[in-house]
Amino acid sequence: MRSILSFWDTMVESVAVIAIVVIALGLTFGTINRDRILPHLGAVLGALVLLITLPPILVGIWHSLSLWQQLGIATLFGLVGIVALQSLKQRSQKRNRHLS
């Protein structure tokens, strides 16, 4: 599990560096206003912090649960997914009826 999390950290850091470089190039070429630099950097750094800190916390919580609790949570998410897909299907059918 540690190798997956270290791979995740490496990928998130790489994407954040690429985003910061793109912001720097945008500033250099004048496509990004100087007034908008701080919100862009704040968004990139905020996403970086969340994406690096949340997965290890969630994995730790998941491993501290018993097998029955894990199965219950997995079943709950499965049921929520099924209900959401059925809702989307009904909405698309209603839209198709109105368009006909």
Short description:
By secondary structure, this protein is an all-alpha fold.
Description:
The chain has about 100 residues and is mainly α. It has 2 domains: about 1-65; about 65-100. It has helices at about 1-30, 35-65, 65-100. The chain is flat, with a radius of gyration of 21 Å. It starts with a helix and ends with a helix.
* Strand coverage percent: under 5%
Profile the largest sheet.
none
Q: What distance lies between the first and last C-alpha atoms, to the nearest angstrom?
A: 52 Å
Radius of gyration: 21 Å
Secondary structure: helix percent: over 70%
Number of helices: 3
The overall average pLDDT, rounded, is 87
Order of helices and strands: HHH
Based on Cα principal axes, name the global outline: flat
Oligomeric state of the chains in view: single chain
Fold blueprint:
Blueprint: H1 2-29, H2 37-64, H3 67-99
Helix pairs in contact: 1-2
Q: Which structural traits does this protein have?
A:
89% helix; mainly alpha; 100 residues; 2 domains
